[in-house]
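Weekly sync notes, structure subgroup
Attendees: PM, AL, DS (notes)

Item 1: joint prediction request from the bench team. They want all two components modeled as one assembly rather than separately. Inputs as received:
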Amino acid sequence: MPEISKSYEPRDVEAKWYAAWQDAKCFSAPTPAPGQEHYTIVIPPPNVTGILHMGHVLNNTLQDALIRRARLEGKAACWIPGTDHAGIATQTMVEKHLKKTEGKGRRDLGREEFLKRVWAWRGEKGDHILKQLRELGCSCDWDRTHFTMDPGYSKAVLASFIKLFEQGHIYRGKRMVNWCPVSLTALSDEEVEMKPTKGHIFRLQYELVEPSTTKDSEGNIIPLTHLVLETTRPETIAADVAVAVHPDDARYTHLVGKKVWRPLGERIQIPIIADKAVDPAFAAGALKVTPAHDKVDFEIGQRHGLPVIDSINADGTMNEFAGPELAGMERFAARKKAAEILQERGNLIEAKPYENNVGYSQRAGVPIEPRLTQQWWLRYPRVEEAKAVVRDGLIQMHPERWSKVYLNWLENIQDWCISRQLWWGHRIPVWYAKGVDREKLTEADLRDPKKIHVSLDGPADPENWTQEDDVLDTWASSWLWPFATLGWPDAEAQAKANFSHFYPTTTLATGADIIFFWVARMIMAGLEFAKPGASIQERIPFKHVYFNGIVRDKQGGKMSKTLGNSPDPLDLIVKYGADGLRFGLLQIAPLGQDVKFDEDRIESGKNFCNKLWNACRFRQMSGPMSDNSSLSAILARLDARQLDDDDHALFAALLEVQALLEKCFADFEFAAATQGLYTFFYSDFCDWYVEVAKARLADPAARDHVLAVQDLVIRQFLLLFEPFAPFITEELWTLLGYNVAGTKFLQDARIGTAEDLRGALAGRSVHIDTAAAGRVAKLKATVTLARQLKADKAVAQKRDVLFSVVAEDAVWTALESASAKFTRLAGAASLARAASAPALPAIVTPLGTLYLDTGVKVDAAAERTRLTKELEAVTKHIAGTEARLNNEAFTSKAPPAVLEGARKQLADQQAKRAELERLLAALV
RNA sequence: GGACCUUUAGCUCAGUUGGUUAGAGCGUUUCCUUGACAUGGAAAAGGUCACUGGUUCGAGUCCAGUAAGGUCCA
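Output from the run, pasted for the record:
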């Protein structure tokens, strides 16, 4: 057996094992055996040309932990990886690259040539992120890697469109959309981010065609020559078609039906209308109505049969309808110019600084432009079912509160604009008969096969048809992810992928930021498409949704490359090892909270791995390795006669942590799981058991038994730890001989439950003595107090000091039997029983009063100070407890166990006080 | 405007159905290279649990309100 080196060097280990796992096809999803449970996860597909960031690390570490744990539990585990074509993001990236390298735009190349370039880009940069996931240790079934633009997947996307079209869920319509003037495409509402934006609001006056009068605040009749209104967008005035007031606004009712002069563009009269959408409290209570450039205005225009004047081009520049002064200008420059002109003409009263919410294109980061265009829309299918599955708990969200957010969105759901004016994506499978005017198609025309052709393969006579230019929104492909990655809709592919076994998937781990974009839509898509006619339980895409937090920087800010506060995970892996990164990150990832990234925690993850490494190294140095090839082989090496309190306490702690992990995985409490593992291994095993065992290892009768206990605990710990730190655990599994011939890897072992282990121990006559843990705790406390006393006397490092104890017979018996452990742990030459109190520094412990002999004369004053401080604390505590026990309401109403506990506590504290008083009195 | 979340040690967070003297890691201070580990060990200091009120024998925990910070939707 190779010797374990002095420190853990992750880099040597990681590459070796990942290659071995892949060679052995460890991550291939097996065909589930009859009755075998499956555990399926589909990866949230990252952008195909993306690179790994901390958010990915967290998200994928969680998934890997889940899938690895499932393997150890004997489930048929299937983790499907893949990437998303990410329409806008990728197209924008390639366009930028083209501009930079060739000075060309996509239109210079033409659609076909441009797409060739995108595919070439994908070939060069694509899937890099999947390689990075391997560095992290992710155990995806790589043979199942999918890409949303693969032929099979594309077929699924188009098939879903056709099906929805045939069912009447999809329609085409000219509507107000969020237009991105940079990407030159429509966006869905979800892709628009509202951001408070500083600008100006312009107080304007529009001249009345016929001067009128109004009343001032005191009721006096005063002349009225202008209508005052406020706007943040003066550049659109030339597209104004009316001015609206609220119908109940007494200031203006007499003006409704009259006209004002439009101050920009062609000098024409526009009507004053009344509409309830106007807020009479805002500004002067009048609103300029610009149907082409505002959603509310558009609706007002519709209600009043007003024309639509579109004064802004697709790219955000003004056109001729904006008036000769503004035509051709960029929209924000035009805004300034418009204000200047209005000032000159006397229409501008004032320009005030103003902050309002402006919609920004999520991708391009520029304000969107409401724009009237022809788009394809989807009326979501299965909305009611989608609500029901979450409300009824068929799909559980973790943390649960997200289901409220989800349901709220579904309650207010709007049709989805699924068309994008991009080239990179799934081109909509609709062909228009030549000669048909696309602008004027009616709902009936859409269903007329002579005018519109909708199919997977296109019309038989393509020369007579023209295909739709638009592609589908990326999310209209990724919403099929949980089943399109399992072969849907092709029966043969589904059979090959074991669709019937692995769908519905088990858990989806993702960020809450895409709950609408992706999670909600997947649920609707799954219900609609996945298993037609099957029960609702069979059609849902997943049973659990775990929302991991967002990784933020130490100050809680968002991580971004431009700010430079986003560490490269690959650098962290080099520095701390993949296991250290994984474990460290999960330690700070509480359920449902954002993660504040702190590199110190990653370092602590690495240090923990090193601790584990050295504990195993020490085990190897402590004695010969025996048969570790199975749990029963190790159990057979236990000697029930040699069991002592420490063994019992350790086994009890092991069972406890094993049960804790079961609960944590069920509840997605990863931070609690890592915390539990850490505490068990550090405190219970290394700091205590291994240390006390050093004393027992010297005893030939106990040695083999103690080694067996350690082998058992390390084995179980490695199994528990593997989902979080797969590399180091695999390495140690091998080095300590836990692998058996035929089953080469840790993952081939079965973890079993805490109860299984309890049963296995009982089978070897090891029945956990639950009282042992209490006795060990007392000894621990006594050792700590002894160390405290030594530290106080500045002899912490000395190991030749003498301790004596004054204790009753029963207590002394307990301490005497552990005296070898005590002297080793407390660092003492000996521990003896003293018949009467010696004149030495003392400390009161649960196992009697300890006296420390350092060979130096007692400093009575220092002793008095120390003991008095202690006495004060105890006295204060006693007072509190007595007050409670003297309260009749407490004694009559508190449960007996609580009452009993309080009484015992009081007795203990009183005994301690008496002892402290005695010690003080004895001081000369 | 609506909904949700957070507030506990210098920092990051635990604290399960209300029940001892509120815990951990990091950081800080002191001491220690003795044969698993200095990527380590020992000890210590550090908290009126945001605030106000209520329920209760008992509140960090439950309820109401207030404040500050954050997120999402309009």
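Discussion: Chain A has a mean pLDDT of 88.
Action: AL to compare against the crosslinking data before next sync.
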